[in-house]
Design goal:
The protein has 216 residues and is mainly alpha-helical. Helix 2 (25-52) packs antiparallel against helix 3 and helix 2 (25-52) runs antiparallel to helix 5 (123-146). The chain has helices at residues 2-21, 25-52, 63-82, 91-112, 123-146, 175-192, 199-210. The chain is elongated. Helix content is 67%, strand content 0%. It starts with a helix and ends in a 6-residue tail after the last helix.
Length: 216
């Protein structure tokens, strides 16, 4: 009798989990966790840049949510790869999206570890901070495309025009300010050159969300 009860309880738990996940499957979980990773990663980036440029006086508090979202994404990705059935999203596109989320979090982490300037900001640092805010908004749009559809269509996702706010005037800064500014600019440029390659894979995920589950 005890064994029968254990079997019944195990079947009930499996049934409940299956109902909660189905028909999304692991692919739906990966999409939602990708959305969370990009949303929290973008917030982490904006805060880290503000800290590194002396425009934010508190350490970034978005680090923990970004790390947690990354861990959830890793677990969901393992489940997706282990799940039987046809993978509707090409692995190359999936790797680009997952790699983009990881790159975003690691660059934000690196920027959060830079020294914190204590003097008034200059135009170059202010421009870099504005660029980081624009990047965060773009990653939020990307999160809307790869996550569960909400009401209405997500905002259009286009590759951002990459420019460097640091011009010749930045070289007139003191040495420690120049070093900080150049490091932030280098990190943002490194992040920006890979943003365009995320547009097409995000579009594929959007199409998967729009396709009825019985046709997937």
């Amino acid at each position: 009798v005890q064994r029968v009860e254990d079997v019944v309880i195990g079947c009930a738990v499996s049934l409940i989990i299956g109902v909660l996940v189905w028909p999304r499957g692991a692919a739906g979980v990966v999409g939602e966790d990708l959305s969370e990773a990009y949303h929290h990663g973008g917030a982490y980036l904006a805060q880290a840049v503000g800290w590194a440029l002396g425009l934010r006086h508190q350490l970034p508090d978005a680090a923990d949510p970004a790390v947690t979202a990354g861990l959830r994404l890793d677990e969901a990705l393992r489940g997706f790869l282990a799940e039987h059935g046809t993978k509707r999203l090409a692995k190359e596109d999936l790797w680009r999206l997952v790699g983009g989320a990881l790159r975003l979090r690691l660059i934000a982490h690196s920027l959060a570890g830079l020294p914190h300037p204590v003097d008034d900001p200059d135009p170059a640092r202010t421009a870099l901070d504005s660029q980081a805010q624009e990047f965060a908004v773009w990653y939020d749009r990307l999160a809307a495309h790869v996550g569960r559809p909400g009401r209405g269509e997500p905002p259009p996702l286009e590759a951002p025009v990459l420019t460097s706010p640091v011009d010749g005037a930045a070289w007139d800064m003191p040495a420690h300010h120049l070093s900080c500014t150049l490091w932030v600019d280098e990190h943002l440029q490194s992040l920006g050159v890979h943003m365009a390659e995320l547009v097409a894979p995000a579009g594929q995920v959007t199409e998967q969300w729009r396709t009825p589950w019985w046709r997937r």
